[in-house]
Amino acid sequence: MKVVKIVFISIGALLAVAALGLYFFLKSVDINKYIPQIAQEVKKTIGRDLVVSRADLNLSFDGASFEARGVSLSDDTKFSSKPFLLINRVRIGVDLKAFIFSHKIQVTEVNLFEPKVTIIRNKDGQLNVQSLMPALPSKNADAQAKKEAASASSAALPLVLVDSLEVSNAELSYIDETFSPQLALALKKTNISLHGFSLTDAFHYTLKAALFSDPQNIDLAGTATLDLASLSLMIQELKIDADFDKFNLSELEAALPMIQPAGLKELKGKLDILVAKAKAGADGLLSLKAEATLKDGQVLSSLLPLPVTQIGVNTKADEKNASITMTAMFSGGQIKEQGILENFLTVPSMSGTFSGQDIELEAVTQAYKLPAKATGKASFDGKFSFSGKAPQDILASFKSDMTFGLKNGVVEGENLVKASLSNIPLLPNLWDTIQPSLSTQTQEDAKKGVTVIEQCDGAANMNATEITLSRFELVTRDIVLNASGSVPLASSMNIKADILIQKQLAAVLIAKAPDLNGLKEDTGTLRIPVSVSGLLLQPQVHPDVEYLTKKIVANRGQAELEKALKKNPQVQGVFNALFGSGETSSSAGAQDNAPSSQTQQPQQPVATQKAVGALFNAIFDKKK
User: Fold this and answer.
1) CA–CA gap between residue 147 and residue 142 (Å, rounded)
2) 313-322: average pLDDT
3) Predicted pLDDT at 247
4) What region, left, alpha or beta, does residue 364 occupy, with left being phi > 0 and alpha being psi -120 to 50 degrees?
5) Measured between alpha carbons, how far is 59 from 30 in angstroms, rounded to an integer?
6) Helices H, strands E: what count in the chain?
């Protein structure tokens, strides 16, 4: 028995000495000597350069810890010459007893201090992280072969458990070059906490970060499960809360330069996202069930000097499509939008409808500082569509059609009757001449500079470059305004319009100013064509000088010619023969035998009008 006891004591002593020897040997080993070899293997495997400024391996009877400083991993040279990953300091702890006795890697802690990661999506839609992922057979490969390849890669990995992973003060950047100019997002002051990480079981994680903000304004928490057999990740019950109130608008515009023209002045809202289930793998997004809700949103910009308030948005999405509904308040009225975004991960396209009801124009005209104040309630209804991934593709394909109307409309600061009749060429004093003959109400409206709108409606369509007014009609007590034309979004508008003076007022005007008879239509109204040019909020109205000059001068010529023809019956007969109904001049000789001159009198104005019209058409080289 003593011999056996001595043998066991000897073996134990030898093992203890060996353990101590191994311990002191590892303590004395400088792990920095192996960094070049490790970097060489990394370069061979993924084609990227690994740099570690300093590494330390610490051993104790409880476990081992590895610490490295100044860690840098280069990017794929096809994307960037700058580092893909930078870590100020990383610390990893391992439980040696679990490895020796349970044959599993029990990581007690992983701490990353101030890591910086830059993810880039190039113009072809490829990501710089794709070269870091193990390659699987193509989508066209046999499913069983793909499964076996994935299983083989997972079988080579030992069981790994991580008690905790902490990331402190990280910066995660995302650059998307498919946008022009490129989109650049950055999550700063990011803290990530992960507990119970496993290659087989579900684990919980949290994230807090600052997006376009100095204080943290993003909270994220959820549960995830890795499936090494299919190289996929399952996410469940992921909750994201974002606070737009803390956004720094300067940072937002710098990251998203495409929104700079909007001139954002205020942005508010609370965004809640719930991803009930999401699964992603080597083939992309495999399944998704998510819902996002924006509450208490508010936007104020230089393009919309009146705030859009009470913005509420609800989005429900699966792995292919998303439905979006939106409501908001603007200038006392309500705006609604509904749409479906299809195939948002492949070839996205969206279509939907929008509407607005009871929008008060008074606040709008005051906010835009328009020269005339308008009151009344506007409404509109329309539909829209677009497709494409990049903003330039979306803008190029954007189309919208809408109808609009106005009720209880009043324009203060401009009387359309006075404005229309005060700018007719060759009749500079027309308004002063006819004003005493106008109705009391018309004179009062003109004196106050007021236009009461009885009806206003129209239709328009819009694309990326312009708004086309296909129909517009504005009816007042005395005039009707019809218009059509285009309004370029980046340059001067070009709208043709007709001001039609109602029949009753037209008769009064012609009686006081006979020259206006040349503008008279068959319906008895007076037509004054105008053009509207200039910027959308600073329109300039110009009468069609050529048309008005032709009509007024032609009317004067006709009146003078009729006087001359009455004094020269022979010349009148020639005009009747050339421009009349075809009767010969012999009928003129029978004039004395026809007391009422029933044959000649109707022909004279018609023939004279045709003669004058032919003359002025030749002068202006333009049809009536």
Assistant:
1) 9
2) 94
3) 92
4) alpha
5) 13
6) 15, 24
